[in-house]
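Per reviewer request, we include the raw input and output of the structure prediction for the construct analysed in the revised manuscript.
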Amino acid sequence: MGFLTEFKKFAVKGNVIDLAVGVVIGAAFGGITKSLVDDIIMPPLGLLISQVDFSSLKLVLKDAVVENGAIVAPAVSINYGMFLQSVFNFLIIAFAIFLLVRTINRLREKEAAAPAPPVNKEEVLLTEIRDILKNRPGA
């Protein structure tokens, strides 16, 4: 029973819950990023290279074998367009995460740079007296 109790404590810890929420939000963010790349960024890039759909870019190594209208052996190809699409998705996600982490770090720096609360004068005097008494010869 100790193992199950220990697992339950682990599973309901704040860090595990935060991680689960992060994974769900990350998946949704991935969908948004894919749409951004596929629907907004890639069409203009496709026009620049006269190819609207990057995913169809490929290098055919061996053509498909077709007999009587049926494909007997599929084509062998290197689908570099799909790879380019994945690279664009990654770069956009990485840039967005970079901006988020950069913003969080700047907010943390502002918190760390905030002035320390004023010290009580009595506390300062008592600390000085303590230090003087501690440093006296024979103490």
